[in-house]
Amino acid sequence: MTTALTTAAAFDGRSVAFAGADVCREAGFTLPEGTERPVFEDDVWDFTDVVGLPVQLALCTRRFDFAEITDERWRLVGKELVLTMLTPRHPAVAPLPRAHRTALHLRSCAGHLDELIRFCRWLSEQGVPGFAQIDTRICDAYMAHRRYILDENGEVVGENSPGTRRRAAQVVVDLVNYRELFTADRVPADLRPWGGATASAIAEMPCGRIENKTQPVDTAVMQPMLAAALFLMSSLGPHAVELTRQIRETDKLSTRKAPGLRAVHVAPVVEFTELLNEYRDTCTPLPMLADHHVADRLANGWSPDDPLLAVATGVLARQAGITQFEARWMRHLRGPMENAVASVGVKEVFARDAAAITTADTTSVLPWTVPLHRLQAVALVGIVRTAAMIVLAAASGMRASELMELRIGCRRLEEPVPGLTRYRLASKVVKGQPLGGTDDEWVVIEPVYRAVELAEELHDDRQEGALLFGRFAFSVRYKWFRNWVNSPAGRRLGLAPIPDGQVNLRRLRRTLALEMAYRPGGVLASKLHLKHITVATTEGYASRPGGAQAELLAEVNKHESDRNLALVLEEFRNYQQGILPAGPGARSLTEFFASIDEKLDPATALAPKTQRSDRDVLNLLTKRAKVLHLGSANYCWFTDPSRALCLKLAGTPTANRPLIGMCDSARCPQATHHPCHRPVWAEHADRTEIFLGQLGTTRKTERARLQGDYDRALRVIAEIDIANTVDEDSA
Length: 731
Prior knowledge:
This protein has 731 residues and is mostly helical. 48% of the residues lie in helices and 8% in strands. It has helices at residues 23-27, 72-86, 106-125, 136-147, 162-177, 199-202, 219-254, 269-281, 291-299, 313-319, 330-344, 374-396, 400-404, 446-457, 474-485, 488-492, 505-518, 523-527, 530-543, 548-576, 586-599, 614-625, 645-650, 678-694, 700-730, and strands at 44-46, 63-65, 148-150, 156-159, 286-287, 346-347, 356-358, 365-367, 411-417, 420-429, 438-444, 628-630, 635-637, 671-672. The strands form six sheets. Strands 9-10-11 form a three-stranded antiparallel β-sheet. It has a three-stranded antiparallel β-sheet with strand order 12-13-14, with no helix packed on it. β3 (148-150) and β4 (156-159) form a beta hairpin. The longest helix has 36 residues, at 219-254. The radius of gyration is 35 Å and the shape is flat.
């Protein structure tokens, strides 16, 4: 291997290990032909054109500017440190005992460089002349500096996140781990900051295995947001596509660079007269200036009462074939224009004759939008595009990086059997994959497919292979979306306001996973068919077991397992308090709970150890939790497939899962009813009673069927009430 200098005394400005290195070649990056390649000695390493970088990677993250480290020795250390992280197999790096064994992503390297720049700046402010003077006291001081947030008076007002603290600790740990490789300056050989603990331990990073730190979107926010997004996509989407076409056509004619325009030096009275006559003949209002241009005219001395104040004279000039309107022409053209304004008026250019739609609250029918200026029209198209993005993210579970890799033409439509349609989206998985990502396909439901179709139609460049969304800031787009829904424009369409609450793509993915795992119904089930989402995700898992949907389904299964354990524990606690289950399977479940209760009784324990905590109880309940399946009106304890009524009715007695949609819980020996199911049965009884009252005397067959359903519902309700009432009396 190439050996670094043992002291910094012989430093001549060149790295011993990496002098003259081609950075991209060493890191294994591919660049297009003719692209300038960064060399180790360059102060700026530009990776902008590296082939295969994810779309999500911001342009600023692709440029490493080492010039921000003012000390030349430390700047060289920064270059050496970054290149070692990009090239763990380099002959000078591989022998280091504590070096990374896998190459870090460019984003991670950029984060390490940013923290090193910050650390070097702090050392300079503290008067530390070199890394050789760093000791544990300085390390502790820097951690304290990065741990707390100070106000302008130097008072502590909060703490930085564990992630920020981890980066601060990691920069010191890296200087220790790679010290043998550095040429110009090094930390002392005996430095062991924080007793050799890892950066995560120093930063007190919470363990992700204990709890997912990403919280779901609050239901009070999710419901109106998803409702608004679906309404905009379905009701406003087709009209927004036409509005987009109108904007493009108008821009072609209104630009000063449009072909056929000419510059004139005298007032074009003839051309304007013909144009204004055409406006009067067709009863078309003159184009209106946007409010900010009107404000400019007022600031330049125009009278607020001038009838031409809001007329877009520049647009009229280009429609007349002239490059721009000269102010000196006004005295020649004012008369004809004022006559035209008096005859046809002035109005916004876009969506003048908007089609009528039914509002979201179904209370009225009105034009889908009011007339708009150009910027307002562009903004409205952007709002509809964001609505499609929200539906796509909320119902597919795709990550931000995967959404940004979508391209025009990514939709795949299959019909494996007549009448059965499968919708797919082609994209790339970036997270955890080699540079360039891995091609993957998502099996999705139709609303997601339609959302992508709408986004393609709203795209400025419909060329096959163009990025569908490109790199975007979802938090900014969502803020615009929410502000529009809560504005008079959203209220006009009957949209419910969206309350404050954090929404991002990670939270949407987490919400989808929890909805699929925890609820037979819920927010998504009320707006989208949750069963279809589950089926699509399962199909995607079966299609590509190692793909992105497999990861989402694994997350769903984990949540489902946690949910089942929590429900079984809750029912066991109910049993201990005398709240018993009802239904055909109640006796079996009660006997199981009784056996568990005996094991928890210290008096009957065969050994000194007793189970007292919820964790110990859950260990005893785990096996039963694995066979729990949720129905909308019952719990199914699928312990014996041969006893499952649904499988007998379907003729599949050997299946390993119940057909919960075919469940007749009033007769199945593995079904139980609990107090949480009583409202469902009560609502069913009330509705059936109403239907019975509306049937004529001649509809005897239907009456008999409904009467049977009604009697069954009343019987189930009575059993639930009796199970609780009897137990309360005995208590």
